[in-house]
Write a structure and sequence with these properties.
This is Gryzun, putative trafficking through golgi-domain-containing protein. This protein has 22 helices and 52 strands. It is α+β, with helices and mostly antiparallel strands.
Length: about 1250
């Protein structure tokens, strides 16, 4: 790209000029005599924060050849500015040329004089470099790139050195005058002027700053957003934010600036100015040239506006017009080459704009059209394209394209694939591949090929006109170093293909070979050898032996000339393989790789190592074991088979030794050459232990295409996996030692070698091996002859201490020494449970020496189960050694599964009970801090304990504790200690705990909480007792969370007596609140009393949230009432006839109102007469108690175990006795189940 003016190649973005931050006179450098505007400026040390502000604005300055921000995307477009620094004396470039003096005008022509002034860069201005017939020059582009900004940002310091008002006023006045002059000056050229006021003090340090800034804005007419801005003392990050925000505010104005220039150029396109009368029409720019000029201008301004679609359209029109314009230009005119530059750069601009729009296919198509257009133009003008000048230009275009693609992101031009694919449905199946944009590596490769053609044409004599565009004269072309240029192109191409992550390796190999050939022809043999080596790898891998043989022939000569003996030995060794015929007919034997004259000065012998992975090795090797598996202490055979495939011309090869290396505990096996040994196809070796290796002798002489097998025997002393890993073949010559390493693990297996060879009746016979990988052997433990049995029945229980008996019986034919260990973990292996053998403190026990006729050994393993249910696995390991072979361990394992579960399941029923004592009077003060009397409520907690295996488990004792009470005192009443149980063996244990709950908190609480904990002491009925335990275990049940309602009113039902003649029911309405409550009590004639939810497991949670009902008659409760309660008034007691129920007749009011005082209760009695029944369980009628104030129906709870509850339906039953009694004839169990 360096051959083209930088203004033609760079991307055009709006120009922003910064003034006031620098001291150097950059304005002079920005005039039209230089394209360099990026020289570092000198920061003004007197201006506050100048360096930080300058850096913040210059950090993201744009306008390079490729701008990533210009790529089309869905994101919001970012403001793009090219930022330059100018000094305070900066002036805009002249709009019109200076008028000519009268003398100069008269000297130009004697005809009519033209006094109309034009731009200094116009073809109509005599001082213009393109006067009088040029289209456009780089100076016009440089004008808008470096000299004429769209936005001028001036930085000015606000005076804050003193607080003198007069000084401030004078300073502000001078600043206002300067700003108004600059505003007027830039407004005449439509340039946006922005002033940035910088202060050394903040608003807090100088209170009048706001007023002064407002006055400046008012006096200058500059707005606050983009006209006059203010920067107080700020950090660099804040300054960066300010710079970005100011650019974003000014960007639309900058686009409008170039939009107006575009409209002006479009307007002038059809109004060509009159040329000077002193020039003939053939000497001035033609109308077609003027059209090209203004189309080009419009395209440039569209590019400044980042309107790529419009820029492509206008550049395209200029390109087509310029092609027509060439028909009017003579080839010897200086304007010919100028127009060619414009044509190339316009094509480059169109191509780049398409890349910005993510259209790589269109970019490649533009490039192809340009190449075809110039080819037609050159052929039409100069008669041929087969000239060095045309190939020089063509190579230059590919170089420029490659340099551009190096800058383009991976999303547009990826390096890892040859080109960007297209949808065949869009472009059609016949879309030519030449229209696909390839990455930069291909473009450099094309440039190299074209330079080779240029080199071939450089010596040809051309007749007629000669194309001098972008090339050297013929005499200089002959002496030009074409090879260096080709080499640079090829190296650039190789580096690009090398970034393709191993996908385009064939192209890498091809280019590496081409580079090697150039170095080889230039006698740079060391460099040639480097690239030969790079090319060999792929051809060797792909098995392209024809090309590889050709390369190796040159590589041998290059290694000799470069004096690289290591590479020389490697290449000559590879050259011996018959796979490389016929290229290696001149190959020599190993002894002739290095002549005696090339020996080292001190006479030392050097070692050279060649890996089979880096060469085409003529030695193939394979190792195989006879069987895939073997047990410890057994012996197995193994065979090493080597096939030598050297060409016949080098004769026999004789290794000095062959070493077999193994993975595992086998020592390396070294086979040394013995000339006197008998040479046969299969040689059985007698290995000798030489310390670190095992050695043997054999005949190692191999003829061309000869195969030999060496058989060894090995025994193994431990469990492991063994495999033949590598074979190291050594050739010891007079001047050097060559070692050839063959990696058996990575080399491709040869099916003809992976067999077992034997000689039968003098003939070689091969047997196929069944193993998938014959070179690998698995050494297994010797099979144990031992029995381990365990007598574990049923599950274990949490926190249980058990003894697990284990029996060991030896079945070996000789004495053995045994140790036994046990490890207990959960199934997941995340938890280990510690245990010990009885009589020891360890999990490992020595069983001593056992003879074949010994009795079985029985040992107990003591173990405490974890405190949570899980599945345990006990692994018992017995390790023993034969006394005849004590170095080999034989192992037997036995696995015992132990499920650990809960021994008992407990369910609870929490039911309210009637407190027998009188509640304290609400009219007596018991506590100065609390006006509420201590109210006690009684509860009954019934526990039903069911065992998993009730037949084999028994409970000896229990412990029940109440803790963590909040706001209440909970008293556990003493009762019988024994747990009750039914007569059947499968019956559950039951027990009822009575709790008195008294509120004792000064703060009124609606609910109280407590924790209940039940612990059971239990054992198995057949538990084994030892010296450390009595067989009992403690099972701690999970904590039971109890909730006691304290203030909720409740209705309790009790049964005082029952007989076939009369059932006496008593209802208690309790009011523990501090309010007087009024209830409406209604007898439901058609409904039985029913609990609408099961009590079990839920009563303790929902005691007062449901709505059961009952039936009573109204009465008193003497033990609970005081004088304030009394009986119901006579006016409310109304005589009622007998009411009839399906099972009972009863007497009393059907509906009545009941008033209950605070902290008191009311007793309601009802007598029921059974109908048509003499005995048995009958449903209790329902009673509805409704709170008239809170609109809530109270639940009625049976408060006596004389009732039976059907937990499925919620029905409540009472037993009708055959004879009058105060006790039930049949009393159900507490918390009984279904009827």
């Amino acid at each position: 790209m360096d051959l083209y003016p930088v203004e033609y190649m760079c991307h055009n973005v709006p120009l922003m000029a910064l003034s006031g931050l620098t001291t150097s006179r950059i304005a002079e450098r920005l005039l039209l005599n230089s394209s360099d505007s990026d020289t570092p400026a000198s920061i003004d040390p007197e201006f506050p924060y100048a360096a930080e502000i300058f850096k913040a604005f210059m950090d993201d300055s744009m306008g390079k050849i490729w701008e990533p921000s210009a790529v089309k995307s869905n994101a919001k477009p970012q403001p793009m500015f090219r930022v330059i620094a100018v000094d305070k004396n900066y002036q805009l470039p002249l709009k019109k040329a200076s008028p000519m003096s009268p003398g100069s005008i008269s000297s130009v022509s004697s005809g009519p004089k033209s006094t109309e002034l034009h731009s200094p860069l116009s073809p109509l201005s005599p001082e213009s470099p393109i006067y009088p017939d040029g289209i456009i020059s780089q100076f016009w582009l440089r004008k808008y790139r470096n000299a004429l900004p769209a936005v001028y940002v001036g930085f000015y310091e606000l005076y804050t050195e003193s607080e003198d008002v007069k000084t401030k006023v004078n300073s502000d006045g001078e600043l206002i005058k300067e700003l108004n002059e600059l505003k007027k000056y830039f407004a005449e050229r439509n340039v946006k002027f922005t002033a940035v006021i910088v202060s050394r003090k903040s608003i807090l340090q100088s209170v009048d700053l706001n007023d002064r800034i407002s006055y400046l804005r008012k006096s200058t007419g500059l707005d606050a957003r983009s006209g006059l801005c203010f920067i107080p003392p700020s950090s660099y990050v804040e300054t960066q934010v300010f710079a970005k925000e100011l650019k974003a505010a000014l960007y639309p104005t900058a686009l409008d600036f170039y939009g107006s220039l575009l409209k002006h150029a479009r307007k002038k396109r059809g109004h060509n100015a009159s040329p000077p009368s002193s020039l003939s029409p053939t000497q001035v720019l033609s109308p077609l040239g003027w059209e090209v000029r203004y189309e080009f201008k419009q395209a440039v301004f569209a590019e400044y506006r980042q309107d790529m679609d419009l820029a492509i359209k206008l550049y395209g029109i200029a390109y087509e017009s310029l092609l027509e314009y060439f028909e009017t230009l003579p080839t010897d005119s200086t304007r010919w080459n100028e127009a060619r530059v414009i044509l190339d750069t316009v094509a480059f601009k169109i191509l780049k704009c398409n890349l910005y729009l993510n259209q790589p296919v269109m970019a490649q198509k533009v490039f192809n059209v340009h190449m075809q257009s110039i080819e037609g133009l050159v052929e039409k003008t100069f008669g041929t394209t087969e000239s060095y000048s045309f190939y020089c230009w063509k190579a230059l275009q590919y170089q420029v394209l490659a340099q551009l693609l190096d800058l383009v992101p991976e999303t547009i031009s990826p390096r890892s694939i040859p080109f960007v694919g297209v949808e065949t449905e869009i472009v059609g199946p016949d879309f030519p591949p030449s229209n696909l944009l390839h990455h930069a590596g291909y473009q450099y490769l094309n440039a190299a090929k074209l330079t080779e053609k240029r080199k071939a044409k450089s010596g040809e004599v051309t007749t007629g006109a000669h194309d001098t565009y972008m090339n050297l004269p013929p005499d200089r072309e002959l002496n030009f170093d074409h090879n260096s240029l080709i080499l640079s192109f090829l190296e650039s191409a190789y580096s690009r293909f090398d970034k393709s992550d191993g996908i385009q390796t064939r192209m890498q190999a091809y280019i590496a070979h081409e580079i090697a050939r150039l170095h080889f022809s230039g006698k740079r043999f060391a460099d040639a050898l480097k690239y030969f080596h790079l090319a060999e790898g792929l051809y060797r891998k792909e098995r392209w032996y024809d090309i590889l043989g050709y390369i190796l022939g040159d590589a041998i000569y290059a290694a000799e000339q470069a004096g690289n003996k290591e590479e020389l030995v490697r290449v000559q060794f590879e050259f011996m393989s018959r796979d490389l015929q016929p290229w290696n007919d001149s190959a020599v034997g190993i002894s002739r790789f290095i002549s005696e004259s090339d020996q080292t000065l001190d006479g030392s012998i050097l070692d050279y190592v060649v890996s089979s992975e880096n060469v085409v090795c003529f030695l193939d090797a394979n190792f195989a074991f006879m069987a895939p598996e073997i047990h410890v202490s057994s012996t197995i055979g193994g065979q090493l088979t080597i096939h030598s495939k050297q060409i016949a011309s080098v004769g026999n090869v004789v290794p000095t030794e062959i070493q077999i290396n193994f993975s595992g505990s086998i020592k390396p096996v070294v086979i040394r050459h013995d000339p006197s040994a008998q040479s046969s196809r299969v040689q059985k070796l007698d290995l000798q232990d030489d310390g670190e290796v095992q050695s043997a002798s054999a005949s190692l002489e191999f003829g061309p295409d000869e195969m030999k097998t060496f058989e060894i025997s090995q025994s193994f002393k431990k469990v492991e996996s063994v495999s033949g890993s590598s074979v190291l073949t050594t050739f010891a010559e007079k001047t050097f030692v060559l070692k050839v390493a063959i990696d058996l693990e990575t080399s491709e297996p040869d099916d003809t070698l992976a067999r077992w060879f034997v000689v039968e009746d003098g003939k070689l016979v091969s047997q196929r091996l069944t193993a998938l990988n014959p070179r690998t052997l698995t050494v297994k433990p010797k099979p144990p002859r031992l029995d381990i049995t365990s007598n574990v029945k049923g599950p274990a229980y949490i926190d249980e201490k058990i003894l697990l008996p284990l029996t060991v019986k030896a079945k070996e034919a000789e004495d053995i020494k045994m140790t036994m260990s046990a490890k207990v973990t959960n199934v997941e292996g995340q938890m280990e449970v510690k245990g010990t053998w009885s009589g020891t403190e360890d999990s490992t026990i020595d069983l001593g020496v056992t003879s074949p006729d010994s009795e079985p050994i029985v040992k107990d393993f003591a173990l405490r189960m974890p405190a949570e249910s899980c599945d345990l696995v006990m692994v018992v390991t017995v390790k023993y050694q034969l006394l005849s072979d004590p170095n080999i361990d034989i192992i037997k394992t036995h696995v015992v599964d132990i499920p650990v579960i809960f021994p008992f399941q407990v369910s609870y029923d929490l039911t309210p009970q009637i407190y027998p004592n009188k509640w304290p009077s609400p009219f007596f003060i018991y506590d100065l801090q609390s006006h509420n009397p201590p109210i006690t409520k009684r509860w009954r907690l019934a526990a039903t304990i069911d065992a998993v295996d009730m037949h084999n488990l028994e409970i000896e004792d229990y412990e029940f504790k109440i803790s963590n009470t909040t706001g209440v005192d909970v008293k556990l009443l003493d009762g019988p200690k024994e747990l009750s149980r039914g007569p059947a063996a499968s019956d559950a244990y039951t027990h009822a705990f009575v709790l008195d709950v008294t509120n004792n908190d000064a703060v009124e609480r609606r609910v109280a909480n407590a924790d209940a904990r039940l612990s059971l002491k239990w054992r198995r009925k057949a538990a084994v007792k030892d010296e450390t335990t009595d067989g009992f275990n403690i099972f701690n049940l999970p904590v039971l969370k109890l909730t006691f309602p304290l203030l909720e009113p409740r209705v309790l039902l009790d049964l005082e007596s029952t007989s076939s003649e009369l059932v006496h029911l008593v209802y208690y309405i309790e009011n523990a609140t501090s309010h007087i409550l009024t209830f409406s009590v209604t007898l439901d004639l058609n409904t039985d009393m029913s609990l609408s939810y099961p009590l079990r497991h839920q009563l303790r949670q929902q005691s007062f949230s449901k709505n059961p009902a009952g039936a009573t008659r109204i009465g008193n409760r003497p033990s609970h009432d005081d004088e304030s309660e009394g009986r119901l008034s006579t006016s409310r007691e109304k005589a009622a006839p007998l009411q009839q129920h399906s099972n009972f007749n009863y007497e009393g009011a059907k509906q009545v109102g009941v008033r209950v005082l605070p902290s008191s209760s009311r007793r309601l009695d009802y007598d029921l007469l059974p109908l048509a029944v003499t005995s048995g369980w009958q449903k209790v009628p329902a009673l509805r108690v409704y709170d008239t104030h809170f609109k809530k129906t109270l639940s009625v709870f049976p408060a006596s175990d004389k009732f039976r509850i059907d937990f499925k339906t919620g029905a409540v039953y009472v037993n009708i006795s055959s004879s009058p009694t105060d006790e039930l004839a049949e009393k159900p169990a507490a918390g009984s189940g279904d009827l």
